[in-house]
Amino acid sequence: MWFYGESTRRLDASTIKRYETVAQVFVKHQGNVKGVVVFTHKEYYNFLKKEVAADTLALIKKHYIVGIHFGWYHKDPELCDFVDFLLASEGTVEFTHECPVPRLKMSSRNFVSERFDNSTNTTRFWDIACISRDAKFKNLDKFLVSIRKLFDEYGPCKVALVSTGQTSKVRDASFFYADLISDYYEMFSEEERDSFVLIRPDTALGSGGINETFIAFLLANSKVLTLFSTLEGDTRVPSEGLLSGCKVVVSKHLKGGGTDLLTDYNSVQFDRFDEAHEALHAAVASHESYTLKEEDRLQVYEKESIKRVVAFLKSLYPQDVDTSQLTFINTNSLSRRLPGHFHDVPWINGRENTADITTFKQLETFMSYCQV
Fold first, then answer.
1. Measured at the alpha carbon of residue 271, what is the angle toward residues 155 and 41, in degrees to the nearest 5?
2. pLDDT: is 293 or 186 the higher one?
3. How far is residue 328's CA from residue 27's CA, in Å, rounded to a whole number?
4. Which of 127, 148, 172, 321 is deepest in the core (most CB within 10 A)?
5. Tens-place pLDDT, residues 111-133
6. Rounded-to-integer distance, Cα 335 and Cα 71, Å
7. Which pairs with CB-CB distance under 8 Å and at least 24 residues apart come from 145-152?
């Protein structure tokens, strides 16, 4: 949940100071001027719309202009009067008719951190990088098959698979790819595993299991970044790859906005999984002559995209509000804050979870923080 206005004084001073620079505050509440709050689609549909009383929602709306950030594919989503605007990229949300509220066609994937801005790096150790949790819809079993075929037809290359999982717990085999490690060992020899490395961060380190600094370093040293799912939320993977100077390989049938920024120049897209290894080979082979175009960079770079968000948010205020007097702060880490993946907020419910508000206790903390 992301909010752009704040009026809290009920939390103790030390707590306020701690979150002054990391919570989702862009404009401090002043007098009768509202703040702006953006909830995730998960918070809105799974909790606020379903369980929270109408008078509580009205109280929030009294103090805030309310938006929803969509991080998963939706067609004709149902919106109630609680919602004033949407942050939803072109391919993430589709409407049969016009969107009923103002919509900025941007989302978390447009705000990639500057630490990924390494497109000019020419020394790249890894040929292929894949960063994905081990849910079955991520199709990592098909990725292993594709790497096997790639090795068989073209010889070994340098591959890094980073797959987060709860390695210390029994996994639900109906949802997770429980055989990932055993398949990796059965399909690749010890010598081949010198070239194809599987890295398994544990979600005990946080819901992502691995921090952006490491991911940025990996991508800065990789020629190709790939994603094998065919349905995603507002995936940041292609955007992080682009800004890092990687060519991106995905299925051309990927839904959820993941292909919105991809072209024949910056990506190779495969039609069927049985030809994915050819796409990977072509992307690696063509990387030497590849240079990130500036227009692609500006689409995903946080420091450029925030300018569009600020202009959009100012347009939501009534004409009698002097928006030139608004001071926008905390405009970093939007790629993680907007979808609820930024953990250093007072309502977080355990480091293995996202920061989505899904309980009344979390909502109480949030409302206290915002003095609502």
1. 110
2. 186
3. 5
4. 127
5. 998 899 988 888 999 999 999 98
6. 11
7. 145/187, 145/273, 146/228, 146/273, 146/276, 146/277, 146/280, 147/188, 147/196, 147/277, 147/280, 148/187, 148/188, 149/277, 150/277, 150/280, 150/281, 151/188, 151/192, 151/195, 151/196
